[in-house]
Amino acid sequence: MLNAWRILKRIFLWLFILQFVYILFCKWINPPVTITQLISLVQGYGLKRDYVGYNEMGSNVKLAVIASEDQLFPDHDGFDIKAIKKAMKYNEKHPAKTRGASTISQQVAKNVFLWQGRSYFRKGLEVYFTFMIEKIWSKERILQMYLNVAEMGKGVFGVQAAAKAYFNKDAKNLTRTEAAMIAASLPNPKVYTIKPLSRYVANRYDNIMQQMNLITGDPDIDALVK
User: Fold this and answer.
1) Cα atoms found within 13 Å of the Cα of residue 147, Cβ hemisphere only
2) 79-83, 169-173, 192-196: which has the minimum mean pLDDT?
3) What is the CATH number of the domain that holds 158?
4) Smallest Cα–Cα separation from 212: which of 67, 75, 57, 60?
5) pLDDT (tens digit, 9 = 90+) per residue, 46-83?
6) Total structural domains in the chain?
7) Exposed/middle/buried for 94, CB within 10 Å: 0-12, 13-18, 19+?
């Protein structure tokens, strides 16, 4: 029994070391593949992706995802406590239709290191990885990783692949309208499609553009999306 406990401790120690090394690795180098990308391949959707540098993404799509997904992204430490409390209250009243409150940082933690799902175990790991990347990576790196790794359609991952697939151009050349369409699809990109244009995206992207206009001029956001 004592030997089994020692072996178990060594396994956990090595797992901790390996995940920490991988977090450091991803601070400078994009992940070779993610669990979500592998699942996309297994399900037959394929894998279209093209990692690009932060300056190659353009400002419009950076601004669009912040406006759509996490307007407090430059200021929080990975978690939006007010949004989490609101989501918890909503979910208590509407158990059949849950609402999330994940920040961009939390989504990066999930997309890069974990898998999709709603279990408490996965959520606990998400909290840990969110805390770590906020401490080790910069905000620019977190946003860059989000825009490179997020699923943006069936088998389409990252803003460069999305820009090519839907608008036949590079991400840095996306207009505000096009960027807002991509951002509108993010909650469920397999269902909220851009091509063909789904009703959800058609109804939502104009609101995202309004939010983009409202947050433009915020010094922290302007510095991040330039």
Assistant:
1) 30
2) 79-83
3) 1.10.3810.10
4) 67
5) 999 999 999 999 999 999 999 999 999 999 988 877 77
6) 1
7) exposed
